[in-house]
Amino acid sequence: MNHAETDRRPSSQVWSEATASRYDDTLGWMGTSEAVEPVVDALARLAGSGRALEFAVGTGRIAVPLAARGVPVEGIELSAPMVEKLRTKADAGTVPVTLGDMATTRVPGEFSLVYLVYNTISNLLTQQEQVECFRNAARHLIPGGRFVIELGVPPLRRLPPGQLACPFEVTEEHLGFDVVDPVTQRLTSHHHWPARGVHGQSEHRYIWPAECDLMAQMAGLAPEHRAADWHGSEFTAESDSHVSVWRRPAPS
């Protein structure tokens, strides 16, 4: 959820009040303790005794339980309605939030951990803004601090020639599929909840893991670890997501 430079409109969509009000209800499995706890466990270990900053903090799915673990957490969020929803779970003293975009907004102080979860960096729809997001993370980190992202691997291997739509979930409760443009690296995620008669879609620019590494290098960050999930499973050619960690080198 990005607000790029002050002289142009943000590339990513700003979640409306209507979307924010039902956001948590659409998370499905991602909103369960089984999905959230491994994320919080890993982030708490990476933060150590330092402060954590979540880019695109949303309604606090991760920030609120991470703060409950005793990790000081702050957030950056473009959508005011999403922050209002977060405020029903935690006050501003527990999880302070700065309204703005994750590519350029600066929060005072330094952090041992900056993180982005649930594919959110792909909400930035240009490569330039994604590079600036990495640079913004690096600006917030103490020497030795880490930047972590959770991101899906583009599903192009699952597309036969000539097909541009790829389902990612088909259940009685939820129908989800992505429409991919390989030329522009743009992806539109479509969601339909039949029982509620609700349809939604979101725009993304997908990024390959190797492209993430190059963005990190441009931001002065060094690769530390890549896994297939928050449990630390090995990342392979068959993995459909990755959790990647880069570190800001300490002065020699």
* Strand line-up in the sheet with most strands: 3-2-1-4-5-11-10
Span of the ends, CA to CA: 35 Å
Question: What structural class should be given to the helix and strand makeup?
Answer: alpha/beta
- Total domains: 2
Return Rg in Å.
17 Å
What is the residue-mean pLDDT, rounded to a whole number? 88
InterPro entries: Methyltransf_25, SAM-dependent_MTases_sf
GO molecular function: methyltransferase activity
Organism: Nesterenkonia xinjiangensis
Pfam families: Methyltransf_25 (PF13649)
Write the layout of secondary structure elements.
Elements: H1 17-23, H2 33-47, E1 52-55, H3 63-68, E2 73-77, H4 80-86, E3 97-99, E4 111-116, H5 127-140, E5 141-152, E6 165-170, E7 175-181, E8 186-193, E9 198-205, H6 209-218, E10 222-227, E11 241-247
Parallel strand pairs: 1-2, 1-4, 2-3, 4-5
Antiparallel strand pairs: 5-11, 6-7, 7-8, 8-9, 10-11
Helix pairs in contact: 1-4
Keywords summarizing the entry:
29% strand; methyltransferase activity; 6 helices; disordered N terminus; 4-stranded antiparallel sheet; alpha/beta; N-terminal domain of TfIIb; Rossmann fold; 252 residues; 2 domains; 23% helix
What does this entry look like structurally?
- With about 250 residues, the chain is of the alpha/beta class.
- The chain folds into two domains: about 15-155 and about 205-250, 3-Layer(aba) Sandwich (Rossmann fold), CATH 3.40.50.150; about 155-205, N-terminal domain of TfIIb.
- Helices cover about 25% and strands about 30% of the residues.
- It contains six helices and eleven strands.
- The strands form two sheets. A seven-stranded mixed beta sheet has the order 3-2-1-4-5-11-10, sandwiched between helices. A four-stranded antiparallel beta sheet has the order 6-7-8-9, with no helix packed on it.
- A hairpin with a 4-residue loop joins strand 8 (about 185-195) and strand 9.
- Helix 1 packs parallel to helix 4 (about 80-85).
- The longest helix is centred in the first third of the chain and has 15 residues, at about 35-45.
- Mean pLDDT is about 90; it is low at about 1-10.
- It comes from Nesterenkonia xinjiangensis.
- InterPro entries: Methyltransf_25, SAM-dependent_MTases_sf.
- This is SAM-dependent methyltransferase.
- Keywords: Methyltransferase, Transferase.
